[in-house]
Design brief:
The protein has helices at about 15-25, 30-35, 40-55, 70-80, 85-100, 105-110, 120-135, 140-145, 155-175, 180-185. It is mainly alpha-helical. The mean pLDDT is about 95.
Length: about 200
């Protein structure tokens, strides 16, 4: 799973163990990132608090003009630029589910400019990639391009913050050799059977 051994679930502080069990209950497995980062509980709490504030802002009482799919699209695209296997596979799976498009994650990971996405999403990813690779070159014209697609300055902050946060995540996952769970590879690729 990782270069660093992960702690046993039973040895984790109660709040972390509870959150991990909730994730397992919802997804059917424990994503490796939850255990890999749990070796340092204070950092785990800080990481997931910021993750949640960015990726599920409604859970912390904040509105966002970005859809869940757009947030995952940012992560998948910029993680591919950072060559992070874990984040491309894991967030690509979530992206496929949110967008209900089995090909979109592979497309944006390889070349978002050729992907089957909207002009708004293309503008979002253009900006995210500039933040990812050349943030020192951001200028007023970059904001204007996003405003033209109905994005607010707060939405633009979200794009930049998600890109920057996952830059950290990408580097932690890559240096530690964190591997994606096998379950992620198939999620969202085939329509779910109705029960």
């Amino acid at each position: 799973m990782s270069r660093y051994p992960h702690p046993e679930l039973t040895d984790l502080p109660g709040d972390i163990r509870t959150r991990i069990m909730e994730v397992q209950e919802k997804s059917g497995f424990i994503p490796n990132v939850f255990l890999a980062l749990a070796r340092r509980p204070a950092e785990w709490r800080a990481f997931f608090a910021y993750h949640d504030a960015l990726m599920t802002p409604e859970a912390v009482g904040r509105a966002s003009g970005l859809t869940k799919g757009e947030r995952e699209m940012i992560v998948t695209t910029t993680s591919a630029a950072n060559q992070c296997l874990y984040c491309v596979v894991a967030h690509g799976a979530i992206l496929r589910i949110y967008e209900k498009k089995p090909l979109v994650a592979d497309q944006v990971a390889v070349n978002y400019r050729k992907a089957d996405i909207t002009p708004r999403q293309r503008a979002i990813l253009d900006f995210a990639m500039k933040v990812c690779q050349n943030s020192h070159e951001i200028e007023e014209a970059d904001f204007a391009a996003l405003h033209a697609h109905g994005l607010s300055d707060e939405d633009i902050w979200d794009i930049a913050a998600i890109t920057a946060f996952f830059g950290l995540s990408n580097r932690m996952a890559s240096f530690s050799s964190m591997m994606p769970n096998p379950e992620f590879y198939l999620l969202g690729r085939l329509p779910r059977e109705k029960r």
